[in-house]
Predict the 3D structure of the following.
Amino acid sequence: MNKITFKLLLATILLVGVTVKAQTHLFEHPDFETIAKDHKTIAIIPFSAKVSLRPKQMKEITPEQLKEMEIGEGQSIQTAMYSWFLKRKKRGKLLINVQDPNKTNAILKKNEIDMEITTPEELAKLLKVDAVITGKFETDKPMSEGASIALGFLVGFWGTTNSATINMSIHNAKDGMLLWNYNKRVIGSLGSSNDQLINKLMRKASRRLAYTK
């Protein structure tokens, strides 16, 4: 392999490494738009988050610290999603109201809700909303500012996340029916915050979301 060929190959590898690549799966219930017309308020549940650190990094933190980090990451995704909806509401592009996450989380905490054994239908009725957004988030490094800084001090790991998977669903409160599911994996340069991540992930998905214009 000559030098020119090698340089071209290296440039291609680097280009692929920094380019955002995505695998997307989107499900939409055929009656979602019809059902959504009767919805007035939805709630976003804190996402279930998993941070998959490298073995060397795992040795530097305790299971309790990792669990706390994942809880914070799930709430950060919830907040970022709420912010995304609010921006569209301000632009007149959102047809429903979104419950403030502070209220949502307070109700969940007050009722000592175990998310692993509570159905979306039960959550929606408890929160008194017409539908709930639930989801799972996996990443190889936390993107919320607080968790990222904390991890940096603990294990000396800085920089942006280079892979993330988000799986979010919307369930109807009346019967627990799955109305919408969005699963997307992104590899590459994602930005440095969950707000940027959500904006990137939701850019195309919002076109198929019945709540948006």
In short: The longest strand covers residues 163-172. The chain has a mean pLDDT of 78. The two ends are 54 Å apart (CA to CA). The chain is about 45% helix and 20% strand.
